[in-house]
Structure formats: C-alpha cells, structure tokens
Amino acid sequence: MTGELKRNLSSKNKPDQGLVQVFTGEGKGKTSAAMGTVIRALGHGLKVFIVFFMKGEYPYGERNILCKLPNVTLVSFGQETFVDPRHIKLEQIEQAGQALMVARQAILSGDYNLVVLDEINVATAFKLIPVEDVIRLIQEKPKHVELILTGRLADPRIIEIADLVTEMVKIKHPFDKGISARRGIEY
Amino acid sequence: MTGELKRNLSSKNKPDQGLVQVFTGEGKGKTSAAMGTVIRALGHGLKVFIVFFMKGEYPYGERNILCKLPNVTLVSFGQETFVDPRHIKLEQIEQAGQALMVARQAILSGDYNLVVLDEINVATAFKLIPVEDVIRLIQEKPKHVELILTGRLADPRIIEIADLVTEMVKIKHPFDKGISARRGIEY
C-alpha cells in the first residue's frame, strides 16, 4: 500500500468519488477495519452513518466511543441472540428489512460521505434480505457516497460490482486453542 | 465468528490474558482493523498505546480523533517519505530503533492493556529493526498486555509465536483501475 499511496500523494482528490468496499472472509478484523475507516473519515470531518444489521443490543465497546463523537450516526438492528441460518425467525427477517430500509434512506439522502453496512453480507447469505435489493441500492447510490459492506459470505454478485474487496483469511485463531472471546478485544 | 462468540458469551473473562495479534497481507484494512480494535478497547475503559513505526508526520485522519480521546497515547516515528527497501537510509534505521525502544518501554511497563505496533512487520522485513528483538519483546511482555502487530510481510517467526493471525487478501483494489488514494478514506 505504501508505494501506491506515495504515487498518489500529489493528487489531492477529495472523496467525491465514493467507492464500494467489501470486507469479507472468515478471519478477524472485518468490522474493526470498517470502524477504523470510520475514525479516519471522522478525522477529516466527513459525515458517517453506520447500520449494524445483526448486532442487536449487545454492548460492543466501539459504540461507547463512537456515539460520543460528532458527525457519526449509529443505528442497530437484530437481536441479542445470534441468527441460526437453519432456524430463521420472522422477527429476524423484519429486523434485517428495517435495517436495509434505514440504510437505503441514509444512502439515497446523500447527506453522508461514508455509510457502513455492518454484517449485511451475512444478512443476505442467510436470506434475511434479498441480495437483489442490496445490488439495486449499490447501483442507485449517489456518486459521492462511499459504502462499506462487512461480513462473512459476501455474495459473488456483490463482489462483482464492488470496487475494493478484501478477504480476511484466518491463518491462526485463539478460539482454535479454546481461548474464549474477551471483553474489550473481541467485543 | 458469531458462533464462536455465542459459545463464549457466558464466560466473562476480562482481558487479563493478553494475546499477540498479527494483521498482515497485501489487502486493505490492516491498520484500520487495529484502530477499530483500539476504539473497542477504549469503549471498555482499557488503556491503549499506539506506536506508528513508519508513518512519519503524515496527517492520517485517525490521529485527529484518537489524540482527543482519553486513555490512548500515540507516538509516531519514521519520515514523511516512504521507505524504499533498496535504499535504506541511516535515519530510517534510527527512527525504527527509537520506535522499538518506546514500544518496549510501554509494553514492559505493564501500564497498557493494548499496545499497537503499527507497520512493525514492514520495519522488520526491511531490516530496519532485527526480528529477534521483536520476538524477544513478545516473549518478555507482561501476561495481561495485548499486542497487535500490523503490516505486510510479517516474519514467519512472528506468525509462529502469535496467537491470532489474519491475512488481508486483496481480491480487488481500485488502485488497479487507476483510482488514486482519497483523503479521508485511504489516509
């Protein structure tokens, strides 16, 4: 990345060309990378909207900080329990549908430079929302709006139309060794 | 991740067992994932120390936000120009050595729950600092201190002793299409 950045340092293009980024894969760091990008954007005075599709009201640490910062709006859908794709509940579909509706309003308003759709890939993979609706939203977004879609199992059609796709590949994970999720680090 | 998290939600283990995390690979999101983890940790009241090994004084957006938050200390080494591994300068070695010394003090003090060593993998790959010194530091760290090492080209010996390793794999990147780095998004 350093070499590419260097080559481009001279061009002071502002983010009037919003791209579509995808963080997917089984490895750690997808939501974290999105949140790091949010902090960077806020540091430049950009406006950010974040939709958590499947996090429910679980007290993820980043919210405690983000909700105190200016220029960033967080909305959260889904339930405290995790979704089991073999036993989808009606309210889970309703929650995901509402999340997509709110995301759609935020994106199409053009008021935000960056909109994060956290775990939307899982919501489409589990068929809580139709992938066609996500594709249409991407196609209809105002040019200047940057989108970040996170979550495992990104649909190939989303990857096809995205500009930047990163797969987080798990090389080694402490859960494999039986170490539990730790507050402040994993959630 | 959701399934593993669910299984572990009942165990309220605090991060008294600090692990060693590595974000490496050619894909986007390594530093961003570290910064997202920092925000999460701060949200839980943890103390964080961040050493930028190779970012120089370049005004990355995340610093504007992080430097205003409590419980986080940022220090930055290296120069504004990027390091060319074929033409290493003495001051680049000196800067990286100072960064490692400051990181070492922060880690061994035990005062911080999380210490981020940003781009340290590149610093070792370019032989600005000896990988043996990094390995020794990992081995000597207080048990409760979590470490995150970022950057391309992570040394196999670091990967070997790390607990959690994620490779960011570039599936698709807009630079490939000739789109430049954009302020607020890439830096």
Structure description:
Two copies of one chain form a homodimer. Chain A has one domain: P-loop containing nucleotide triphosphate hydrolases (Rossmann fold, 3-Layer(aba) Sandwich), CATH 3.40.50. Helices cover 37% and strands 18% of the residues of chain A. The first copy, chain A, is built from seven helices and six strands. In chain A, strands 3-2-4-5-1-6 form a six-stranded parallel sheet, sandwiched between helices. In chain A, α3 links the parallel β2 and β3. The longest helix of chain A has 20 residues. Chain A is globular.
Please tag this protein with its features.
disordered N terminus, homodimer, 18% strand, alpha/beta, 187 residues, Rossmann fold, globular
Q: Hey, roughly how much beta strand do the residues of chain A contain?
A: 15-25%
* Proper CATH architecture of chain A: 3-Layer(aba) Sandwich
Encode the helix/strand succession of chain A as letters. HEHEHEHEHHEHE
The total of beta strands of chain A comes to 6
Interface with most residues: A-B, 82 and 81 residues
Brief sketch in words of this structure:
The structure is a homodimer of 187-residue chains. With 187 residues, the first copy, chain A, is an alpha/beta fold. Chain A has one domain: P-loop containing nucleotide triphosphate hydrolases (Rossmann fold, 3-Layer(aba) Sandwich).
Summarize the SSE layout with pairings.
Two copies of one chain form a homodimer.
Chain A: H1 2-8, E1 20-24, H2 30-43, E2 48-52, H3 61-66, E3 72-76, H4 90-109, E4 114-118, H5 120-125, H6 131-140, E5 146-150, H7 156-161, E6 164-172
Parallel strand pairs in A: 1-5, 1-6, 2-3, 2-4, 4-5
